[in-house]
Amino acid sequence: MTLRALLMLVLGLLLSPLASAHKASTGYLHLAARQGNLDGRIELAVRDLDFAMDLDANRDGAVTWGELKAARGRIADYVRDRLSVAAAGERCELQDRDLKVVSHSDGNYAVLYLSGSCPKVADRLSIDYRLFFDIDALHRGLLALDLQSGGTQSGVFAPDAHELQYATVGSDVGRVFVEYFRAGLVHVWSGLDHLLFLAGLFLPAVLRRVHSRWVAVPDVRTALKDTAFIVTAFTLAHACTLTLAATGAFTLPSRLVESAVALTVLFAGFNNLVPLVYRELFWLSGLFGLIHGAAVASALIDLGLPGSGRVWALLAFNLGVEVAQLTLLLVVVIPAFAFRNTGFYRKYLLLPGSAVVAFVGACWFVERACGIYFGVPLP
Q: What percent of the chain has pLDDT over 90?
């Protein structure tokens, strides 16, 4: 493949609809339910609100505090139309109390403070969250629910799981496990940086580097076994730092961690073009897993792990990550095995694909480390 063709391929990727697509988003809902009274807040990315409601009145490409404050009534109506809480089958009234702005690692968030009451005190609460799902299927709502018993319940809202129910007394370990397992699956399947990192590892899965040449693996079992070791090493390391960071054992600056994640993507692609490490890749995968685990811990910290069932939540999330990665392994490696002996695979899939992974990783690194935006979609 010529350099000109490679550059055209990369340029085509950046000019594709993906490059201008709306970024997958996250909302944070914090509620306290005590004796039929509700109190809490919802944090929504300003960029998401602008995308949904067109808040940029002067069309200068930035939503100011003045524009956000002027739209407070519209934002409150938007939230009330798409968020509801019910007790014993009767809807609880929610009112907005205040509007502020906070900064998260991925930008500014509007914080709408809420309060309300339920007509009945019930042993179960039902929360229905439908924000942004009609315009962004990858949006996720993360819930932290404080109960009168002193326990904390957590949940993840998605288009196919927009209504969740909670016992106001005690805990539901099974529900916690299912929700966090699903969140682990979504973390892999919807995380563009995670997918590109795996692509860099999986592209050469059916080949081996021998005397500066790519040689096809002898059988599919070898390819699957070796790649499974790489995936499992990543998951175990990912689980270690994720668990430690999410439980408060250590904290790292988000810019440093996110920049390091971008470097792992860059290296995964570059290593296929100019092999630096091509034996026992599971050690490299484990090292990079430590970095990715620290990165995703920030989302779980914002979510708030359940007061009871915390171990189950972390276990379920990491199992979800492992299952999602093994599923991708089967989807990618088995078809690739059929073409491993062809020049087509090496010339038009391995090398261009790795170049794209490395290029996007480099752009992400500069964006995250230096704050210079190139238009490459962020995960």
A: 19
Report the alpha-carbon distance of residue 233 to residue 302 in Å, rounded: 26
Neighbouring-strand partners of residue 83? 129
Burial class, 253, CB count within 10 angstroms (exposed 0-12 / middle 13-18 / buried 19+): exposed
Residue 238, helix vs strand vs coil: helix
**Both tokens of residue 293?**
């685990």
Q: Which residues contact 51 (CB under 8 A, 6 or more apart)?
A: 22, 135, 136
How far is it, in rounded angstroms, from Cα 307 to Cα 346?
A: 50
The pTM assigned to this predicted structure is: 0.60
The model's confidence at residue 304, banded by pLDDT at 50, 70 and 90, is low
Give CA–CA dist 177/175, Å, rounded.
5
Contact 13, 19 (CB under 8 A): yes
The rounded distance, in Å, linking the Cα atoms of 155 and 143 is 5
| Nearest in space to 74 (alpha carbons), one of 110, 116, 38 | 110
3-class DSSP assignment, residue 39: strand
pLDDT of residue 8: 42
113: tokens are 């403070």
pLDDT (average), residues 220-226 = 83
Cα 13 to the center of its chain, rounded Å: 21
Provide the CA 25 distance to its chain's centre, in angstroms. 8
Is 281 strand, coil or helix?
helix
